[in-house]
Amino acid sequence: MNIFDFYTDRHGDLDWKPALQTQAKSARKLLKAFREQTESNVLGALPATLLRSVVSVLHKMLGSAYGAECHSIASAVGVPVEELLFANLAYDLTQAAGCSTFVASTPRGPVHARTLDWPFPKDHLRRNTTAYRVHGCPQGDYTIIGWPGLFGVLTAVAPGRFSITVNYVRNARHTVFGAIHHAVSGHWPVPWLIRRTLDEAPDFSSAVRLLQSEEVISPVLITLAGTKNDEKAVIERSPTGYATRKARKLNHLITTNVYQHDSYLEENITVACSECEGGGANSRHQRCEHCDGSGVQFEDDSLQRIQYLDDAICSQKPMSCLGAIDVLFDGDGLIAYQDTQHAVAMSARTGEVAVCIPGHAPITL
Questions:
Q1: 271 — phi, psi (to 5°)?
Q2: Residue (of 305, 316, 314) closest to 117 by Cα position
């Protein structure tokens, strides 16, 4: 895994060129793959020319935030800036990722762990997972776990402030057309807003408020942990609204790919229960345990992952980043599986980061 140190310039922008001097080829391949995945997801609904017009509009509307970096990265990699922006919208326009996340209390503050699961060709994401350590930010340093060519953030820790991760959520009311509407309305792409939060929020509470207040292009579940055990939150977002789940001091929080807050339960995508075939009871007319008698279940295995992590955290009681990584990989393929690109565990209090790419030993930064 590559590790690079970055320093902000006098305008507060990151200078990506030193890292991209050695990662330019990999970045071009990744950007091409992200672009192709995004196009395959949305071009059935939208003409390519319209989609690229949307990217151009978004660039103009939000360019003041990271416009200089966009041009710098595009120049270093050797691609048009519009292509770079298009690839950096992959999360919001494809919504193909599925992840499992938890935050657990330890004597040294919360440990925050996640798998990043994203179907992606040719192991591009696994082979190019990179730690970018950012220095000189006015609010404090931070470390991003990401990939070359992407300036937005899905996983990061800001020592002394907070750690943050993003989980895709399946929303029954969200469509590609909705995402495009929100984009041209000036809403924030999710990874860009996470990056902004790292740049601007001085502490956990400020990060929560910022992530609650800004409108976003796509639905998302954002998990945060501060430096104290009572600083844990999951902000469950629709493009224009939010609900926040919190945990008591010694309790843990778990995030998969479904809404868990009462305010958003009806926006989950459900199907008829596979065990009782939607009847809510088994052949003996007893309440179906698989769906708790409701007759429906989530369209993926989110509930099973929540139950596994709940049991594993209670039994294993992870006390460190490496211990948290073990929880993620001990699920017999339920948590970490073939689409898992990497697992990360972080501590905002100590600044420790552990990264594990499937098939390799964990690395501690």
A1: -135, 165
A2: 305
pLDDT of residue 274: 61
The type of residue at 165 is: T
CATH fold for domain 2-258+300-359: Penicillin V Acylase; Chain A (3.60.60)
Which residue type is seen at 166? V
Instruction: Judge whether 102 and 255 are in contact, CB under 8 Å.
Output: yes
CA atoms within 13 A on the CB side of 165: 34
Question: In angstroms, rounded to a whole number, what is the distance separating the alpha carbons of residues 116 and 173?
Answer: 24
Domain borders along the chain are: 2-258+300-359, 267-299
Q: Which of 144, 159, 170 minimizes the C-alpha distance to 69?
A: 144
- Rounded CA-CA distance 164/176 in Å is 26
Predicted local confidence at residue 107, as pLDDT: 95
Report whether 117 contacts 337 (CB < 8 A): yes
Q: What six digits make up the tokens of 126?
A: 């696994």
pLDDT, one tens digit per residue, over 264-296 is 988 887 666 666 655 656 554 555 655 555 555
Yes or no: say if 254 and 102 are a contact pair by the CB < 8 Å rule. Answer: yes
Ranges under pLDDT 50 in the chain: 284
